Amino acid sequence: MKRGARLLVGLFAIVVASCAPPRDEGRGTLRLSECRLPGLDRAALCGSHEVWEDREGRQGRRIALKVAVLPARRRGAEPDPLVVLAGGPGQGAIALAPQVAPLFSRLNDSRDIVLVDQRGTGRSHPLDCEPEEEPPLQALFEDSLPEKMVLECLEKLDADPRHYATPAAVADLDEVLGALGYASVNLWGGSYGTRVALELMRRHPARVRTATLDGVAPAGMKLPLSFVADGEAAFERLLADCEAEPGCRAAYPDLRRDLGALRARLARSPARARIGDPVTGETHDVRVTENVLLSGLFRPLYAPEIASLLPFAITRAAGGDFNPLLAQNLEFTNRLEENLSVGMHLSVVCSEDVPRITPADLAAASSAFFGRALVDDFLRACAHWPRATLPADFHDPVRSTAPVLILSGGIDPATPPRLGEKVLATLPNGRHAVAPRLAHGVSGQGCAPRLIEKFVREADAKSLDVSCLERLPRPLFVLPAGARP
């Protein structure tokens, strides 16, 4: 994701390790050959599969979908691979190989791992919106979709955005898996990838052996509107957790008062701060507005290790030093700097989510802590962005008898447990496991990889002992020097 397009999208962070060299191989009708993926020390198998851009009309041009397979290490591998579905929306799956390979290393002993760059992402005809000139550092701190950028992107795109929503991507995926020769598969989806997984379960139920859904983002939610309430709940939980921890409470006894006074002051008169550009190393002035403050509070909530700095950063900002707050946001945005196609993100959100936002929703958002600035940005952008035609049942709950493991972080500001519970209601062989003190992305934490491995091997979520997730701690809050004994 580039400057000037800082979308608050749900991404997941997972930690990894590697695998041993495969052979050239063809599966089904899709021919694969040995390739090297950045960040992996073993070769993979790569290929491409052409599909109609307009799947319904089956006319016009065809686009190539890039495919990578990390073959099982053992001979006599299981026939059902693990298929990784990326988040965003807008992430390419293949670029995640260095993260998912170690995470699923033990499963990779006996199963292939399949990564397909969804249409509009990665190297599958990406819908990128790169500005002609690099925007200023200020843009890093503002979650905005400038109307000028959106219109310029539409003008330059070599694509029809109406054909890049989730239903077309799911039809592509089913076709690719068939061409690879896989009759049934195990799905792992993170964030938006869970929406893709659920839609594949709806449209092609025989294809799915199991599904692991980490941070559920069902079609029934309304992005980015849902961030307003869910972000406020996560932030309130952070403040309450600080008050409940003796060291944090002692170090920041007036945290809520300081934050209220800071916000009111910035609403009246924005402040100026100086910070180094992470690209050039040059020092720049940053205008700190009320919205910059709110973005600076929301973004770190995705990752508890970054959010643990928030009480310290708020207190320093209240005293006039904005560097800790801005620096932690640079850390977060640097994680999202690459591998997100903004045009594809808009094609999904503008077709599937924004049209369902009502005047009553906007009225409620106006009085919420984080306000409706981001929602308004998307409303303006989506007024220009062409929309896909969706199936009539697209927003209905997905009903499936496949074994499903749902993972939720209890302090997730984007895909909280309430969404997991809602999805579980129509999945009779599903299990919802909550890690109360984790945020967005549970799969790489603590015992979660072991639970996923056991689930995929046994295809039984009901019998899993998930109590270990309840013991995973929130990182300790950062305190001033010498404050913690």
Key traits:
485 residues; alpha/beta; 10-stranded mixed sheet; disordered N terminus
Biggest β-sheet: count, sense, barrel? 10 strands, mixed
Low-confidence stretches: 1-26
Bin the strand percentage.
Answer: 15-25%
Q: Give the topology string: H per helix, E per strand.
A: EEEEEHHEHHEHEHHHEEHHHHHHHEHEH
Fraction of residues in H or I helices: 25-40%
What is the CA-based Rg, rounded? 22 Å
Which strand order spans the largest sheet, edge to edge or round the barrel? 1-2-3-4-6-5-7-8-11-12
Write down the overall mean pLDDT: 90
Categorize the overall geometry. globular
Q: Helix count? A: 17
Cα separation of the termini: 41 Å
Report the strand count.
12
Describe the structure.
With 485 residues, the protein is of the alpha/beta class. It is 36% helix and 16% strand. The chain has 17 helices and twelve strands. The strands form two sheets. A ten-stranded mixed beta sheet has the order 1-2-3-4-6-5-7-8-11-12, sandwiched between helices. A two-stranded antiparallel ribbon has the order 9-10. Strand 1 and strand 2 form a beta hairpin. Helix 4 (166-180) packs across helix 5 (192-203) and helix 8 (255-268) crosses helix 11. The chain is globular and about 65 Å long. The protein starts with 24 loop residues before the first strand and ends in a 27-residue tail after the last helix. Mean pLDDT is 90; it is low at 1-26.
